[in-house]
Specification:
Layout lengths: L9 H35 L5 H22 L12 H16 L3 H10 L10 E2 L2 H14 L1 H5 L1 E5 L3 E9 L19 E8 L1 E5 L2 E2 L1 H5 L5 H23 L14 E3 L8 E5 L1 E2 L2 E2 L6 H8 L3 H4 L3 E4 L1 H7 L11 E2 L9 E2 L2 E5 L13 E4 L1 H4 E6 L3 E9 L2 E14 L5 E5 L4
Parallel strand pairs: 2-16, 7-8, 8-19, 11-14
Antiparallel strand pairs: 1-17, 3-4, 5-18, 6-18, 9-10, 11-15, 12-13, 13-14, 15-19, 16-18, 17-18
Helix pairs in contact: 1-2, 3-4, 5-8
Length: about 400
């Protein structure tokens, strides 16, 4: 039996594109290693080459561009609607978006008695569209892709933790058991704050039956949501937004205590140490306990990653390595790197590198429901779609994340 490959299928084209991008990336990295090795050899002979320095930086920038291109998520096709209630919600929502018809959508939400409805107007998007938005955010929001994510139906999620654990000990099979002390409990609070986007559409777009409304809305809001989330999860102050992990108190790791994040000094003010600069990275890795380290990830921005890309070990091997597969991530000392542009640049006293088990260390809370309010009046002839979701976040385990501070000590 003969099989025919449909080269025009989006999935097939995406596969070819991904493989091609990956091959380009590997080839460019080999060029980078060759040029950088030549640069280092000339420096050792005391004859630096400005043109060679510029060449290395150009290739380094090209690697960053290729990594950025690889990180963009592919658009998914139409979602499968599997039950009658979902089909009814999708149909009613499409009628609302295209023409402003609210009767059917109001009836759907009345029957569902949804916890995501709010008094300030707007209607819940279908579940499939909400999940599509969440999946896209996970693909392009670096911290969301690493952290724990929990859905809630209220406005605040409270997570209890033990300040002091119960008394424990070893006893023989027939020995008397002493009464154990009760644990002291406290709670971490993670309020969900409102995040909004406001895409606009023309009447022509809304009248075009070939346009997939779900995909259009997801595509319009994903970047806005991802940019705002990414900044908040790293640097947010907790006021009407999530609290980023860099907003917590920091102390030298030797003096670490619960409620703060420990840091390792780089060895020089605003830079790595001039000799054996990678030693600080080793110290950062092993500042984390073994139970967290096995799931460790580095988090840094592109500029920091470009600087580290030049580091070698004592045998001449590069510490930074490209991904092993097309959909993978680059690694540093065998640990994956997440590229977060909201991380600070290397500068005096900056916390430019984080390392940790972010799934255990950072919690993101999503309130159930994404709402859309159709506004055909404020920006005629355009129709605005005020789209909101509620998101919170903060550190849930202060022992699971360590930072590098670019200072002498």
């Amino acid at each position: 039996m003969d099989f025919e490959i449909n080269d025009s299928a989006p999935e097939h084209k995406a596969g070819i594109s991904a493989r091609g991008d990956y091959d380009d990336f590997r080839h460019t990295f080999e060029e980078f290693k060759s040029a950088n090795d030549e640069r280092l050899a000339k420096l050792e002979r005391g004859c630096g080459d400005v043109l060679l320095e510029e060449k290395v930086e150009r290739i380094n920038a090209a690697l960053d561009d290729l990594r950025l291109k690889q990180s963009r998520p592919a658009l998914e096709g139409r979602a499968r609607i599997t039950d009658a209630a979902s089909r009814e919600h999708k149909s009613a929502f499409e009628s609302y978006v295209r023409g402003g018809e609210t009767t059917a959508l109001r009836a759907v939400e009345t029957k569902a008695m949804s916890v995501g409805s709010d008094a300030d107007g707007g209607y819940l998007v279908p579940v499939e569209l909400e999940h599509s938005i969440s999946q896209r955010l996970t693909a392009i929001s670096p911290i969301r892709g690493l952290a724990s994510v929990r859905e809630i139906s209220g406005s605040v999620y409270k997570k209890p933790f033990m300040v002091t654990g119960p008394a424990t000990g070893w006893v023989g099979e027939t020995d008397a058991r002493t009464q154990t002390a009760s644990p002291t409990l406290d709670a971490l609070s993670f309020p969900a704050m409102e995040l909004f986007a406001q895409p606009a559409a023309t009447a022509t777009l809304l009248d075009d039956a070939a346009i997939n409304i779900d995909e259009w809305i997801a595509g319009e809001v994903e970047l806005t949501f991802a940019v705002q989330e990414g900044a908040a999860f790293v640097n947010g102050d907790g006021s009407n937004k999530p609290k980023g992990f860099l907003a917590y108190a920091t102390v030298a790791n030797a003096s670490w205590a619960w409620g703060s994040l420990g840091y390792i000094a780089s060895g020089a003010a605003g830079a790595f140490a001039s000799s054996n600069p990678s030693d600080a990275l080793v110290d950062l890795i092993y500042a984390l306990k073994a139970g967290y380290r096995q799931n460790g990830n580095f988090v840094m921005n592109r500029k920091t990653q470009a600087a580290i890309r030049k580091f070698k070990d004592s045998t001449g091997n590069y510490l930074w390595q490209p991904p092993l597969v097309a959909s993978g991530r680059a690694s540093l000392m065998t640990f994956p790197i997440a590229e977060a542009e909201d991380m600070p640049d290397v500068a005096a006293n900056s916390l430019a590198i984080a390392f940790g088990d972010f799934r255990r260390g950072y919690l993101i809370v999503d309130r159930v429901g994404v709402r859309v309010l159709r506004d055909p009046y404020s920006a005629k002839p355009y129709v605005l779609f005020y789209t909101t979701k509620r998101v919170g976040g903060g550190v849930q385990d202060f022992d699971a994340i360590k930072l590098m501070k670019f200072a002498a000590s």
